[in-house]
Design a protein that fits this description.
Elements lengths: L3 H12 L10 E8 L10 E4 L5 E3 L5 E6 L5 E6 L6 E5 L6 E7 L15 H5 L3 E4 L2 H5 L6 H10 L19 E5 L2 E2 L22 E7 L13 E7 L6 E6 L3 E9 L5 E10 L2 H4 L4 E19 L4 E28 L4 E29 L5 E29 L11 E33 L2 E26 L2 E3 L10 E23 L6 E12 L4 E12 L7 E13 L3 H4 L13 E16 L2 E17 L2 E4 L2 E4 L5 E17 L2 E16 L3 E7 L5 E8 L2 E3 L4
Parallel strand pairs: 1-7, 9-12
Antiparallel strand pairs: 1-4, 2-3, 2-5, 5-6, 8-11, 9-10, 11-12, 13-14, 14-15, 15-16, 16-17, 17-18, 18-19, 19-20, 20-21, 21-22, 21-23, 23-24, 24-25, 25-26, 26-27, 27-28, 28-31, 29-30, 31-32, 32-35, 33-34
Length: 698
């Protein structure tokens, strides 16, 4: 941990690249509104003839630095509205305040590079272009494929990802403010189907890899916030690939009161799995249907329906597997081989359905209210009955021999059988309300949510191992199974959660903005109250010549247990399991500059996470097997740097570099430290405390 203070010292040093006071600048601040005086967010504000600018905040406000002592023009542009232009002539240090009313209309906008101040001011926020998800060269593809490039996850067959040392279960996913879930029984990336998120329907992708606000839920690592499009006219698309095919269509009525967005996809990884180490007949298939429908009830009210139904099937009839490894040691050197012959099959089925209804009401330009009701269901089944006969020994590698590739000196043989009949049904009902109130320098946001979670689970697994005609574990006169899990669970959990936060904009000359909030969570399973304060601060020194924004964030992040964490290794359920808890802090800066007449953006962020009441787990491909006990402490610390820009002209690209250290300390864990003689044979041992060991993310 000695290096952690160094990380936080590096950033201001790096950011303090030759900085000089700006002597010839003026500032224009203001607000953009529609004809009904409602704030317009994400309006592009740029200098006429320049390729840089800013966008307005959620409350429609903006601040931009402009040259002095000469006539300049600001151009305001927004899809579906006419482009507006305002002319100015300002003196050094002068500040101008304007309100721009945008009129509806259809315009053709010139290309500009827009600097999203929200993206730059919020800690851990990475904004992704959903169009890149369609063409990314990755077997998993999709939005998650883009995220895995950002966070560095390396399981190419899986869409799951680990963020800053966290587990796959520590990531939140929202689509149009509805929380969505993944299947839970999946053991490997081969069994995964389509992701819930359809890139063809996606408008915005905001990914937080840490330091996220109180308005987001109760997980430890990250938030993926997806917004689907609201179409203005009829359109559609279709694509065909070796692994995936898709079709989508969209449209709206003439008055744009009614809109629809529908997507259909089909995916099969059969061609990809044909090259697997275990040869056999792989038959994976996945398909889904999604629809987003909106209707404008009045000028101030609208309703929205989001629906999804997806099904994934996986069938496997393994035939043969051949493994080889070379061993070199002072005592033994050999080319060892393992041949396995299979019989039996595996059949898995995962069905996910989701229906969400939202009603939005905006009584005036300052107040926005939203009510949501949703139902999410995972219905999963897993059937495995596979036996294998194996032969272990020295493999012949001399191509001139007739027995090339065969095991010539058997060292062991045996039989094993894996059997599973697992069923899981998870149903989640959610009713929630959220709102926002614009009070000028204060932008309040709040939310309240009620969840009813029903979990019905039945596990029936056993494993038989026979080595050299002895069943393991060996007991004379008995036939023993190596592993047996038989368990049933029927849980009903009610969760209550909520938050309130304030987004504060200080005087324009200070360049400061503050987000501070608190959220709470309570569940009837372990009857635990959780309070999580969180805050974020951004500072842009307007007097500096360079375009730099400093960011700081910190707070409490706590994750109540759900299905997988509750299960112990033996299949029993620990209903007294407490939430995993952490304090997290991040600090960094964002620097915009131009090089070779191209815009670039460099970000650096250091982070530290201290965790307690951790539930340890083992990683089996993409399946996490939890201990079901709060018996560990952990920490993660690191430094991340990214350079965004046109490294190749007209091609959006970025380069990332990161360093991370994770450690975990389990309670009452022990190991033996052996003393070896000159022949590397143990002659003595000492029992030692396990202490801090390398965690999952490193």
């Amino acid at each position: 941990m000695r290096f952690l203070p160094i990380l936080f010292l590096i950033m201001p040093i790096c950011a303090s690249l030759p900085v000089q006071a700006q002597k010839k600048q003026a500032y224009i601040s203001g607000k953009t509104v529609d004809p009904n005086e409602k704030p317009l967010a994400n309006v592009s504000v740029s200098l006429l003839g320049k390729q840089t600018g800013v966008v307005t905040s959620d409350s429609g406000t903006f601040t931009i630095t402009v040259p002095v002592d000469k006539a300049i023009a600001l151009v305001f542009s927004y899809a579906g509205y006419k482009t507006e232009q305002r002319n100015f002539l300002l003196n050094t240090g002068e500040r101008e305040l304007v309100t721009v009313r945008m009129e509806p209309g259809v315009t053709h906008l010139d290309s500009v590079v827009v600097t999203d101040q929200r993206q730059r001011r919020e800690a851990g926020l990475v904004v992704l272009n959903p169009k890149n998800a369609i063409n990314i060269p990755s077997p998993s593809g999709g939005i998650e494929g883009l995220i895995k490039v950002i966070v560095g996850s390396n399981n190419e067959l899986s869409s799951q990802y680990s963020v800053r040392g966290g587990s796959y279960d520590e990531n939140l996913i929202y689509v149009n403010d509805f929380e969505v879930f993944r299947p839970y029984l999946v053991r490997s990336g081969q069994q995964e189907g389509l992701s819930f998120i359809n890139p063809e329907l996606t408008r915005n992708v905001n990914f937080f890899n840490g330091g996220f606000q109180a308005k987001y839920g109760d997980k430890l690592s990250s938030v993926l916030d997806i917004q689907y499009r609201k179409p203005k006219r009829f359109g559609g698309s279709a694509y065909i690939g070796l692994l995936e095919q898709g079709l989508h269509f969209e449209g709206s009525t003439k008055n744009n009161k009614f809109t629809y967005l529908v997507g259909v996809r089909n995916r099969s990884n059969r061609n990809l799995l044909s090259s697997q180490e275990t040869q056999g007949n792989y038959v994976p298939s996945s398909a889904d249907l999604q629809a987003l429908v909106t209707y404008q009830l009045s000028k101030t009210s609208s309703i929205e329906f989001l629906g999804n139904i997806s099904q994934t099937k996986f069938k496997l009839q393994p035939a043969f597997s051949q493994l080889t490894s070379s061993v070199f040691s002072p005592l033994y050197t050999a080319n060892l081989g393992l041949d396995i012959y299979f019989e039996g099959r595996e059949e898995d089925r995962y069905v996910t359905s989701m229906a969400g209804l939202a009603y939005s009401h905006q009584p005036n330009s300052k107040l926005r209210l939203k009510w949501m009701l949703s139902r999410f269901e995972n219905d999963e089944s897993e059937s495995i009955d596979i036996a294998g006969t194996y032969l272990f020994g020295d493999r012949e590698f001399d191509k001139t021999q007739a027995d090339f590739g065969l095991i010539t000196n058997p060292l062991g043989s045996g039989v094993y059988q894996n059997f599973s009949r697992n069923r899981l049904n998870i149903e989640v009902w959610n009713a929630s309300h959220k709102g926002s109130l614009d009070k000028g320098n204060h932008y309040f946001q709040w939310g309240q949510s009620l969840d009813r979670q029903s979990i019905k689970d039945k596990l029936n697994e056993w494993e038989f191992q026979d080595s050299a005609a002895y069943s393991l574990p060996y007991n004379p006169g008995q036939l023993n199974l190596n592993k047996v899990i038989k368990s049933e669970a029927d849980l009903d959990i009610t969760r209550i959660s909520g938050y309130i936060q304030d987004n504060i904009s200080f005087d324009d000359s200070s360049g400061l903005s503050l987000q501070a909030g608190i959220r709470y969570n309570y569940n009837t399973l372990n009857k635990e109250w959780l309070i999580s304060p969180r805050a974020g601060l951004a500072w842009k020194p307007f007097s500096w010549k360079r375009d730099v924004i400093f960011r700081f964030a910190g707070g409490a992040y706590q994750q109540p247990p759900f299905y997988r964490e509750l299960r112990r290794y033996d299949g029993t359920v620990n209903t007294a399991l407490k939430a995993q808890k952490s304090w997290q802090v991040t600090s960094g800066f964002d620097y915009n500059f131009r090089y070779g007449n191209r815009p670039f953006r460099f970000t650096m962020e250091a982070y530290y996470k201290s965790l307690r009441d951790v539930v340890p787990y083992d990683v089996d491909n993409v399946r996490l097997r939890y201990f079901g006990e709060n018996n560990a402490r952990a920490y993660a610390a690191g430094l991340e740097m990214r350079l965004f820009g046109e490294l190749v002209k007209d091609a959006e690209s970025w380069v990332s570099l990161g360093f991370m250290r994770t450690r975990e300390n389990l309670e009452n864990d022990r190991y033996y430290d052996y003393t070896l003689d000159e022949n590397n044979i143990p002659v003595d041992s000492i029992q030692r405390d396990g202490g801090w060991v390398v965690g999952f993310g490193e």
